[in-house]
Write the C-alpha coordinates for this entry.
Amino acid sequence: MTRRFRSRRTWLALLLLLPMLLLAAPRGTTANPAQRVMERVRLAQEGLPAWRAGMLIDIDLPGMKVKGKRVGIRHTPPDRFDFDAKGFALLPRKALMWTADSLFAGLSEPRLSPARPGDPRGSVRLGGLFREDGLLARMDYRVDTLRWLVTQVNTWHDTLKAVQLENDYIRVGGHWLPSAVRVDMRLTPELQRFYERLRATMRQRKTPREGRGTVRIVLDGHRLGA
Amino acid sequence: MLTLIQAELAKTVRLWRTAIGYAAILVVVPLILWGLAASGDLLSSQFTRGLEEQFILVGDVMNGYTASIIVMNFLWVHIPFLITLVAGDILSGEAVRGTWRVWLIRRPSRLQVLAAKYVVAQAYAFSLVALLAVVSVGFGLLLMGGGDVLVVGTEGVVLLGESVAIPRLLLAYGCAGVAMASVAALAFWVGTLVEHPIGPIVGSMAILIVLLALSNLPLAIFDNLRPWLFTSHFDVWSLALEEPLPVAEMARSLFTLAAWTGLFTGAAAFSFLRKDILS
Protein backbone atom coordinates (compact mmCIF):
# COMPACT_ATOMS: atom_id res chain seq x y z
CA MET A 1 0.00 0.00 0.00
CA THR A 2 2.78 2.40 1.02
CA ARG A 3 4.69 1.46 -2.09
CA ARG A 4 1.65 2.20 -4.28
CA PHE A 5 1.15 5.52 -2.52
CA ARG A 6 4.81 6.48 -3.20
CA SER A 7 4.43 5.59 -6.84
CA ARG A 8 1.37 7.83 -7.10
CA ARG A 9 3.29 10.68 -5.47
CA THR A 10 6.09 10.25 -8.00
CA TRP A 11 3.67 10.33 -10.90
CA LEU A 12 2.02 13.43 -9.46
CA ALA A 13 5.37 15.18 -9.10
CA LEU A 14 6.27 14.26 -12.66
CA LEU A 15 2.92 15.57 -13.93
CA LEU A 16 3.53 18.85 -12.17
CA LEU A 17 7.13 19.01 -13.41
CA LEU A 18 6.26 18.50 -17.08
CA PRO A 19 4.37 21.80 -17.61
CA MET A 20 7.14 23.57 -15.72
CA LEU A 21 9.77 22.07 -18.05
CA LEU A 22 7.70 23.00 -21.09
CA LEU A 23 7.33 26.56 -19.81
CA ALA A 24 11.02 26.81 -18.99
CA ALA A 25 12.08 25.59 -22.43
CA PRO A 26 12.77 28.37 -24.92
CA ARG A 27 10.19 29.01 -27.62
CA GLY A 28 10.45 26.97 -30.80
CA THR A 29 12.74 24.32 -29.41
CA THR A 30 12.47 20.76 -30.42
CA ALA A 31 13.06 17.68 -28.45
CA ASN A 32 16.67 17.43 -29.73
CA PRO A 33 18.86 18.57 -26.84
CA ALA A 34 21.53 19.77 -29.29
CA GLN A 35 19.05 22.07 -30.99
CA ARG A 36 17.96 23.25 -27.58
CA VAL A 37 21.56 24.23 -26.78
CA MET A 38 21.82 26.09 -30.08
CA GLU A 39 18.59 27.88 -29.30
CA ARG A 40 19.88 28.88 -25.86
CA VAL A 41 23.03 30.34 -27.45
CA ARG A 42 20.81 32.29 -29.86
CA LEU A 43 18.59 33.51 -27.04
CA ALA A 44 21.61 34.63 -24.97
CA GLN A 45 22.54 36.96 -27.82
CA GLU A 46 19.05 38.46 -28.09
CA GLY A 47 18.82 41.99 -26.81
CA LEU A 48 22.50 42.64 -27.46
CA PRO A 49 22.85 46.30 -28.39
CA ALA A 50 25.21 47.62 -31.07
CA TRP A 51 28.79 47.66 -29.86
CA ARG A 52 32.13 48.99 -30.95
CA ALA A 53 35.70 47.94 -30.15
CA GLY A 54 39.26 48.10 -31.38
CA MET A 55 41.02 45.00 -32.71
CA LEU A 56 44.72 44.20 -32.82
CA ILE A 57 45.29 41.58 -35.49
CA ASP A 58 48.26 39.27 -35.96
CA ILE A 59 48.21 36.84 -38.87
CA ASP A 60 50.90 34.22 -39.20
CA LEU A 61 49.63 31.86 -41.87
CA PRO A 62 51.69 29.98 -44.44
CA GLY A 63 52.32 32.69 -47.05
CA MET A 64 50.67 35.52 -45.16
CA LYS A 65 52.13 37.70 -42.43
CA VAL A 66 50.36 40.63 -40.80
CA LYS A 67 51.76 42.03 -37.59
CA GLY A 68 49.93 44.28 -35.10
CA LYS A 69 47.32 45.69 -37.48
CA ARG A 70 44.73 47.87 -35.72
CA VAL A 71 41.19 47.77 -37.03
CA GLY A 72 38.04 49.25 -35.56
CA ILE A 73 34.94 47.06 -35.47
CA ARG A 74 31.27 47.99 -35.07
CA HIS A 75 28.60 45.34 -34.70
CA THR A 76 24.95 46.14 -35.26
CA PRO A 77 22.71 43.22 -34.38
CA PRO A 78 21.65 40.91 -35.73
CA ASP A 79 24.48 40.34 -38.19
CA ARG A 80 26.01 43.56 -39.45
CA PHE A 81 29.75 44.16 -38.96
CA ASP A 82 31.51 47.33 -40.10
CA PHE A 83 35.27 47.74 -40.09
CA ASP A 84 37.40 50.77 -40.12
CA ALA A 85 41.16 50.66 -40.76
CA LYS A 86 43.83 53.13 -41.65
CA GLY A 87 45.09 51.99 -45.03
CA PHE A 88 44.48 48.36 -45.87
CA ALA A 89 43.58 45.41 -43.69
CA LEU A 90 42.86 41.71 -44.16
CA LEU A 91 40.43 40.15 -41.72
CA PRO A 92 40.11 36.37 -41.78
CA ARG A 93 36.42 35.52 -42.02
CA LYS A 94 36.86 32.44 -39.86
CA ALA A 95 38.11 34.58 -36.99
CA LEU A 96 34.99 36.74 -36.89
CA MET A 97 32.36 34.17 -35.99
CA TRP A 98 30.60 35.43 -32.92
CA THR A 99 26.89 35.50 -33.72
CA ALA A 100 24.96 32.30 -33.24
CA ASP A 101 23.66 32.52 -36.81
CA SER A 102 27.16 32.65 -38.27
CA LEU A 103 28.41 29.94 -35.92
CA PHE A 104 25.64 27.46 -36.65
CA ALA A 105 24.91 28.40 -40.28
CA GLY A 106 24.56 25.30 -42.43
CA LEU A 107 25.00 22.91 -39.53
CA SER A 108 23.09 19.69 -39.97
CA GLU A 109 22.49 16.64 -37.80
CA PRO A 110 23.39 18.43 -34.55
CA ARG A 111 23.97 16.20 -31.58
CA LEU A 112 25.16 16.71 -28.04
CA SER A 113 28.08 14.93 -26.46
CA PRO A 114 29.63 15.18 -23.01
CA ALA A 115 32.44 17.58 -22.25
CA ARG A 116 35.98 16.31 -22.74
CA PRO A 117 38.64 16.11 -20.07
CA GLY A 118 40.13 19.58 -19.73
CA ASP A 119 36.99 21.40 -20.83
CA PRO A 120 35.97 24.18 -18.42
CA ARG A 121 33.20 23.53 -15.92
CA GLY A 122 29.72 23.77 -17.38
CA SER A 123 30.84 22.98 -20.93
CA VAL A 124 29.08 20.69 -23.35
CA ARG A 125 30.14 19.55 -26.80
CA LEU A 126 27.90 20.02 -29.78
CA GLY A 127 28.66 18.15 -32.97
CA GLY A 128 27.28 18.22 -36.49
CA LEU A 129 28.01 18.17 -40.18
CA PHE A 130 28.72 21.08 -42.49
CA ARG A 131 29.40 21.24 -46.22
CA GLU A 132 32.46 23.38 -46.96
CA ASP A 133 34.47 23.69 -50.20
CA GLY A 134 32.58 20.72 -51.58
CA LEU A 135 33.74 18.65 -48.63
CA LEU A 136 31.67 17.36 -45.80
CA ALA A 137 33.17 18.85 -42.68
CA ARG A 138 32.61 17.56 -39.19
CA MET A 139 31.96 20.37 -36.72
CA ASP A 140 32.56 20.30 -33.02
CA TYR A 141 31.52 23.22 -30.79
CA ARG A 142 32.36 23.71 -27.14
CA VAL A 143 29.50 25.57 -25.49
CA ASP A 144 29.78 27.22 -22.10
CA THR A 145 26.36 26.50 -20.60
CA LEU A 146 26.93 28.86 -17.66
CA ARG A 147 27.01 31.85 -20.04
CA TRP A 148 25.59 30.19 -23.20
CA LEU A 149 28.60 31.15 -25.26
CA VAL A 150 30.49 29.19 -27.90
CA THR A 151 34.09 29.14 -26.71
CA GLN A 152 35.61 26.74 -29.22
CA VAL A 153 34.82 25.53 -32.74
CA ASN A 154 36.68 22.71 -34.46
CA THR A 155 36.27 21.84 -38.11
CA TRP A 156 37.41 18.42 -39.25
CA HIS A 157 37.88 17.20 -42.81
CA ASP A 158 37.97 13.42 -42.43
CA THR A 159 40.54 12.87 -39.69
CA LEU A 160 42.35 16.16 -40.32
CA LYS A 161 41.56 19.16 -38.13
CA ALA A 162 41.20 22.05 -40.60
CA VAL A 163 40.32 24.89 -38.25
CA GLN A 164 40.26 25.44 -34.52
CA LEU A 165 38.66 28.66 -33.34
CA GLU A 166 38.78 29.77 -29.72
CA ASN A 167 36.80 32.74 -28.46
CA ASP A 168 37.22 34.55 -25.14
CA TYR A 169 34.60 36.98 -23.88
CA ILE A 170 34.40 39.97 -21.59
CA ARG A 171 31.32 41.20 -19.72
CA VAL A 172 30.44 44.76 -20.69
CA GLY A 173 27.26 46.38 -19.37
CA GLY A 174 25.69 43.00 -18.65
CA HIS A 175 26.49 41.59 -22.10
CA TRP A 176 29.18 39.14 -23.14
CA LEU A 177 31.31 40.58 -25.93
CA PRO A 178 34.31 38.94 -27.65
CA SER A 179 37.65 39.91 -26.12
CA ALA A 180 40.11 37.59 -27.86
CA VAL A 181 40.07 35.19 -30.78
CA ARG A 182 42.63 32.59 -31.75
CA VAL A 183 42.30 30.63 -34.97
CA ASP A 184 44.58 27.75 -35.78
CA MET A 185 44.09 26.80 -39.42
CA ARG A 186 45.55 24.95 -42.37
CA LEU A 187 46.36 26.59 -45.69
CA THR A 188 43.12 26.59 -47.67
CA PRO A 189 42.86 25.69 -51.39
CA GLU A 190 41.69 29.29 -52.12
CA LEU A 191 44.82 30.76 -50.57
CA GLN A 192 46.99 28.24 -52.37
CA ARG A 193 45.39 29.22 -55.69
CA PHE A 194 45.94 32.89 -54.82
CA TYR A 195 49.66 32.34 -54.21
CA GLU A 196 50.06 30.35 -57.40
CA ARG A 197 48.45 33.20 -59.36
CA LEU A 198 50.97 35.76 -58.10
CA ARG A 199 53.61 36.71 -60.62
CA ALA A 200 56.83 34.83 -59.99
CA THR A 201 60.01 36.85 -59.66
CA MET A 202 63.47 35.72 -60.53
CA ARG A 203 64.09 34.78 -56.94
CA GLN A 204 62.64 31.37 -56.21
CA ARG A 205 59.25 31.85 -54.61
CA LYS A 206 58.39 29.25 -52.04
CA THR A 207 54.73 28.74 -52.92
CA PRO A 208 53.16 27.60 -49.67
CA ARG A 209 51.54 24.26 -50.24
CA GLU A 210 50.86 23.03 -46.78
CA GLY A 211 51.28 23.93 -43.17
CA ARG A 212 49.32 25.49 -40.36
CA GLY A 213 49.20 28.98 -39.07
CA THR A 214 47.47 31.13 -36.51
CA VAL A 215 45.38 34.26 -36.45
CA ARG A 216 45.19 36.18 -33.17
CA ILE A 217 42.78 39.02 -32.54
CA VAL A 218 42.64 40.96 -29.28
CA LEU A 219 39.68 43.28 -28.80
CA ASP A 220 39.75 46.24 -26.45
CA GLY A 221 37.96 49.49 -25.74
CA HIS A 222 34.49 47.93 -25.96
CA ARG A 223 31.63 50.41 -26.01
CA LEU A 224 27.95 49.53 -26.04
CA GLY A 225 25.33 51.30 -28.08
CA ALA A 226 27.98 53.10 -30.11
CA MET B 1 91.65 64.20 -56.50
CA LEU B 2 88.67 66.21 -55.29
CA THR B 3 89.36 68.83 -57.97
CA LEU B 4 89.44 66.08 -60.57
CA ILE B 5 86.10 64.74 -59.40
CA GLN B 6 84.56 68.22 -59.37
CA ALA B 7 85.82 68.90 -62.88
CA GLU B 8 84.54 65.56 -64.11
CA LEU B 9 81.21 66.16 -62.40
CA ALA B 10 80.87 69.60 -63.99
CA LYS B 11 81.63 68.11 -67.40
CA THR B 12 79.15 65.27 -66.97
CA VAL B 13 76.34 67.50 -65.72
CA ARG B 14 76.64 69.68 -68.82
CA LEU B 15 76.05 66.72 -71.14
CA TRP B 16 72.57 66.21 -72.62
CA ARG B 17 72.97 62.51 -72.06
CA THR B 18 73.08 63.09 -68.30
CA ALA B 19 69.89 65.13 -68.34
CA ILE B 20 68.03 62.42 -70.30
CA GLY B 21 68.04 60.07 -67.29
CA TYR B 22 66.72 62.66 -64.87
CA ALA B 23 64.15 63.94 -67.39
CA ALA B 24 62.93 60.41 -68.10
CA ILE B 25 62.31 59.79 -64.40
CA LEU B 26 60.69 63.19 -63.88
CA VAL B 27 58.30 62.65 -66.79
CA VAL B 28 57.56 58.91 -66.81
CA VAL B 29 57.29 58.18 -63.10
CA PRO B 30 54.63 60.85 -62.30
CA LEU B 31 52.73 59.69 -65.39
CA ILE B 32 52.70 56.09 -64.16
CA LEU B 33 51.75 57.15 -60.65
CA TRP B 34 48.89 59.19 -62.05
CA GLY B 35 47.77 56.13 -64.02
CA LEU B 36 47.97 53.95 -60.92
CA ALA B 37 45.98 56.51 -58.93
CA ALA B 38 43.32 56.64 -61.65
CA SER B 39 42.97 52.89 -62.03
CA GLY B 40 44.03 51.83 -58.56
CA ASP B 41 40.64 50.29 -57.70
CA LEU B 42 40.81 47.97 -60.70
CA LEU B 43 44.37 46.92 -59.86
CA SER B 44 43.42 46.38 -56.22
CA SER B 45 40.49 44.17 -57.13
CA GLN B 46 42.60 42.20 -59.59
CA PHE B 47 45.28 41.66 -56.99
CA THR B 48 42.94 40.66 -54.18
CA ARG B 49 40.88 38.32 -56.38
CA GLY B 50 40.83 34.97 -54.66
CA LEU B 51 41.27 36.41 -51.20
CA GLU B 52 37.64 37.49 -50.69
CA GLU B 53 36.41 34.02 -49.77
CA GLN B 54 38.78 33.76 -46.85
CA PHE B 55 39.29 37.39 -45.90
CA ILE B 56 37.30 40.54 -45.42
CA LEU B 57 39.25 43.24 -47.22
CA VAL B 58 39.13 46.65 -45.59
CA GLY B 59 40.41 49.78 -47.36
CA ASP B 60 42.42 50.08 -50.55
CA VAL B 61 45.64 48.24 -51.41
CA MET B 62 46.87 51.05 -53.62
CA ASN B 63 48.64 53.94 -51.92
CA GLY B 64 51.77 55.99 -52.39
CA TYR B 65 54.10 53.37 -50.95
CA THR B 66 52.60 50.43 -52.86
CA ALA B 67 52.76 52.47 -56.09
CA SER B 68 56.44 53.25 -55.38
CA ILE B 69 57.15 49.55 -55.08
CA ILE B 70 55.44 48.92 -58.42
CA VAL B 71 57.56 51.69 -59.97
CA MET B 72 60.70 50.01 -58.59
CA ASN B 73 60.26 47.37 -61.27
CA PHE B 74 61.89 49.94 -63.55
CA LEU B 75 65.12 48.80 -61.93
CA TRP B 76 65.23 45.72 -64.15
CA VAL B 77 65.96 47.32 -67.54
CA HIS B 78 64.95 50.98 -67.74
CA ILE B 79 67.15 52.49 -65.04
CA PRO B 80 70.13 50.30 -66.07
CA PHE B 81 69.73 51.64 -69.60
CA LEU B 82 69.80 55.24 -68.34
CA ILE B 83 72.90 54.43 -66.28
CA THR B 84 74.76 52.96 -69.25
CA LEU B 85 74.08 56.17 -71.21
CA VAL B 86 76.35 58.07 -68.84
CA ALA B 87 78.64 55.45 -67.30
CA GLY B 88 79.42 54.02 -70.74
CA ASP B 89 80.10 57.39 -72.27
CA ILE B 90 82.27 58.75 -69.49
CA LEU B 91 85.42 57.02 -70.80
CA SER B 92 84.61 56.32 -74.45
CA GLY B 93 83.37 59.90 -74.86
CA GLU B 94 86.91 61.13 -74.27
CA ALA B 95 88.18 58.69 -76.89
CA VAL B 96 85.72 59.86 -79.52
CA ARG B 97 86.50 63.50 -78.74
CA GLY B 98 90.22 62.71 -78.96
CA THR B 99 91.01 64.23 -75.56
CA TRP B 100 92.86 61.25 -74.04
CA ARG B 101 96.25 62.34 -75.32
CA VAL B 102 95.90 65.78 -73.74
CA TRP B 103 94.66 64.27 -70.50
CA LEU B 104 96.99 61.36 -70.03
CA ILE B 105 100.39 62.66 -71.04
CA ARG B 106 100.61 64.84 -67.92
CA ARG B 107 99.64 64.69 -64.24
CA PRO B 108 97.32 63.51 -62.76
CA SER B 109 98.01 59.84 -63.22
CA ARG B 110 95.86 57.54 -65.29
CA LEU B 111 94.62 55.86 -62.15
CA GLN B 112 93.51 59.20 -60.69
CA VAL B 113 91.68 60.12 -63.89
CA LEU B 114 90.03 56.72 -63.92
CA ALA B 115 89.06 56.99 -60.23
CA ALA B 116 87.53 60.45 -60.71
CA LYS B 117 85.49 59.23 -63.66
CA TYR B 118 84.46 56.10 -61.77
CA VAL B 119 83.25 58.14 -58.79
CA VAL B 120 81.16 60.34 -61.09
CA ALA B 121 79.70 57.30 -62.90
CA GLN B 122 78.73 55.70 -59.59
CA ALA B 123 77.39 59.02 -58.24
CA TYR B 124 75.18 59.26 -61.31
CA ALA B 125 73.84 55.73 -60.78
CA PHE B 126 73.04 56.46 -57.12
CA SER B 127 71.53 59.85 -57.97
CA LEU B 128 69.16 58.21 -60.45
CA VAL B 129 67.98 55.75 -57.78
CA ALA B 130 67.64 58.60 -55.27
CA LEU B 131 65.62 60.64 -57.75
CA LEU B 132 63.45 57.60 -58.48
CA ALA B 133 62.84 57.26 -54.72
CA VAL B 134 62.01 60.93 -54.17
CA VAL B 135 59.74 61.22 -57.22
CA SER B 136 57.98 57.86 -56.66
CA VAL B 137 57.33 58.27 -52.96
CA GLY B 138 56.72 62.03 -53.15
CA PHE B 139 54.25 61.94 -56.04
CA GLY B 140 52.78 58.69 -54.80
CA LEU B 141 51.95 60.17 -51.41
CA LEU B 142 50.69 63.34 -53.04
CA LEU B 143 48.32 61.46 -55.36
CA MET B 144 47.30 58.48 -53.24
CA GLY B 145 48.32 59.20 -49.67
CA GLY B 146 50.04 56.80 -47.30
CA GLY B 147 48.97 53.57 -45.65
CA ASP B 148 50.04 50.00 -45.14
CA VAL B 149 52.04 48.24 -47.80
CA LEU B 150 50.98 44.91 -49.21
CA VAL B 151 54.10 43.18 -50.47
CA VAL B 152 54.31 39.97 -52.47
CA GLY B 153 57.54 38.42 -51.27
CA THR B 154 59.28 35.09 -51.67
CA GLU B 155 57.35 33.69 -48.69
CA GLY B 156 53.92 34.98 -49.73
CA VAL B 157 52.00 38.11 -48.84
CA VAL B 158 53.23 40.52 -46.18
CA LEU B 159 51.32 43.52 -44.89
CA LEU B 160 53.74 46.11 -43.55
CA GLY B 161 52.46 48.85 -41.30
CA GLU B 162 53.15 52.43 -42.41
CA SER B 163 55.70 52.99 -39.64
CA VAL B 164 57.64 49.91 -40.77
CA ALA B 165 57.13 50.61 -44.47
CA ILE B 166 59.10 53.89 -44.56
CA PRO B 167 62.42 52.55 -43.19
CA ARG B 168 61.98 49.38 -45.26
CA LEU B 169 61.48 51.44 -48.42
CA LEU B 170 64.63 53.42 -47.61
CA LEU B 171 66.50 50.14 -47.19
CA ALA B 172 65.02 48.87 -50.47
CA TYR B 173 66.23 51.95 -52.36
CA GLY B 174 69.66 51.56 -50.73
CA CYS B 175 69.82 47.95 -51.95
CA ALA B 176 68.67 49.09 -55.41
CA GLY B 177 71.56 51.56 -55.38
CA VAL B 178 74.02 48.71 -54.79
CA ALA B 179 72.47 46.74 -57.67
CA MET B 180 72.68 49.74 -59.99
CA ALA B 181 76.31 50.30 -58.97
CA SER B 182 77.12 46.96 -60.59
CA VAL B 183 75.49 48.16 -63.82
CA ALA B 184 77.50 51.38 -63.71
CA ALA B 185 80.69 49.37 -63.15
CA LEU B 186 79.85 47.07 -66.08
CA ALA B 187 79.21 49.99 -68.45
CA PHE B 188 82.37 51.68 -67.15
CA TRP B 189 84.44 48.59 -67.89
CA VAL B 190 82.96 48.13 -71.39
CA GLY B 191 83.73 51.85 -71.93
CA THR B 192 87.44 51.11 -71.50
CA LEU B 193 87.35 48.54 -74.29
CA VAL B 194 85.85 50.62 -77.09
CA GLU B 195 86.43 53.94 -78.75
CA HIS B 196 82.84 55.02 -79.34
CA PRO B 197 80.12 55.76 -76.73
CA ILE B 198 77.55 53.62 -78.55
CA GLY B 199 79.73 50.57 -77.90
CA PRO B 200 79.45 50.52 -74.08
CA ILE B 201 75.74 51.36 -74.19
CA VAL B 202 74.88 48.58 -76.62
CA GLY B 203 77.47 46.20 -75.19
CA SER B 204 76.40 46.67 -71.57
CA MET B 205 72.72 46.36 -72.41
CA ALA B 206 73.37 43.22 -74.48
CA ILE B 207 75.25 41.66 -71.55
CA LEU B 208 72.48 42.71 -69.14
CA ILE B 209 69.68 41.34 -71.30
CA VAL B 210 71.40 38.01 -71.86
CA LEU B 211 72.22 37.62 -68.16
CA LEU B 212 68.70 38.71 -67.12
CA ALA B 213 67.29 36.08 -69.47
CA LEU B 214 69.53 33.43 -67.93
CA SER B 215 68.52 34.57 -64.45
CA ASN B 216 64.82 34.39 -65.32
CA LEU B 217 64.63 31.28 -67.46
CA PRO B 218 63.06 28.52 -65.40
CA LEU B 219 65.38 25.89 -66.84
CA ALA B 220 67.05 23.47 -64.48
CA ILE B 221 70.24 23.49 -66.56
CA PHE B 222 70.94 27.07 -65.36
CA ASP B 223 70.18 26.35 -61.69
CA ASN B 224 73.85 26.08 -60.71
CA LEU B 225 74.84 29.12 -62.75
CA ARG B 226 72.03 31.44 -61.62
CA PRO B 227 73.27 32.30 -58.09
CA TRP B 228 76.58 33.47 -59.54
CA LEU B 229 75.10 35.96 -62.00
CA PHE B 230 74.84 39.50 -60.69
CA THR B 231 71.53 39.97 -62.52
CA SER B 232 70.02 37.22 -60.35
CA HIS B 233 70.47 39.58 -57.39
CA PHE B 234 68.99 42.72 -59.01
CA ASP B 235 65.83 42.22 -56.97
CA VAL B 236 67.68 42.40 -53.65
CA TRP B 237 65.58 45.49 -52.95
CA SER B 238 62.45 43.31 -52.78
CA LEU B 239 63.99 41.38 -49.86
CA ALA B 240 64.09 44.60 -47.82
CA LEU B 241 60.29 44.57 -47.85
CA GLU B 242 59.87 41.06 -46.49
CA GLU B 243 58.85 40.18 -42.97
CA PRO B 244 60.91 39.02 -41.17
CA LEU B 245 63.87 40.62 -42.92
CA PRO B 246 65.88 37.81 -44.62
CA VAL B 247 69.22 39.21 -43.46
CA ALA B 248 71.35 36.26 -44.61
CA GLU B 249 69.82 36.21 -48.10
CA MET B 250 70.16 39.99 -48.40
CA ALA B 251 73.79 39.87 -47.29
CA ARG B 252 74.51 37.11 -49.83
CA SER B 253 72.93 39.13 -52.65
CA LEU B 254 74.63 42.39 -51.66
CA PHE B 255 77.97 40.62 -51.38
CA THR B 256 77.53 39.07 -54.85
CA LEU B 257 76.65 42.46 -56.33
CA ALA B 258 79.58 44.13 -54.57
CA ALA B 259 81.93 41.39 -55.77
CA TRP B 260 80.82 41.86 -59.38
CA THR B 261 81.14 45.64 -59.03
CA GLY B 262 84.69 45.12 -57.75
CA LEU B 263 85.45 42.71 -60.58
CA PHE B 264 84.18 45.11 -63.27
CA THR B 265 86.07 47.98 -61.65
CA GLY B 266 89.28 45.96 -61.50
CA ALA B 267 88.83 44.91 -65.12
CA ALA B 268 88.25 48.54 -66.08
CA ALA B 269 91.45 49.63 -64.28
CA PHE B 270 93.42 46.78 -65.85
CA SER B 271 92.19 47.69 -69.32
CA PHE B 272 92.50 51.47 -68.91
CA LEU B 273 96.03 51.44 -67.45
CA ARG B 274 97.20 49.44 -70.49
CA LYS B 275 95.25 51.48 -72.98
CA ASP B 276 97.16 52.61 -76.04
CA ILE B 277 96.36 56.29 -76.56
CA LEU B 278 98.91 56.91 -79.27
CA SER B 279 97.42 54.89 -82.08
Q: What stands out?
A: Chain A touches chain B through 39 residues (CB under 8 Å). Chain A has four helices and eleven strands. Chain A has a mean pLDDT of 80. Helices of chain A lie at 2-24, 33-45, 100-104, 189-197.
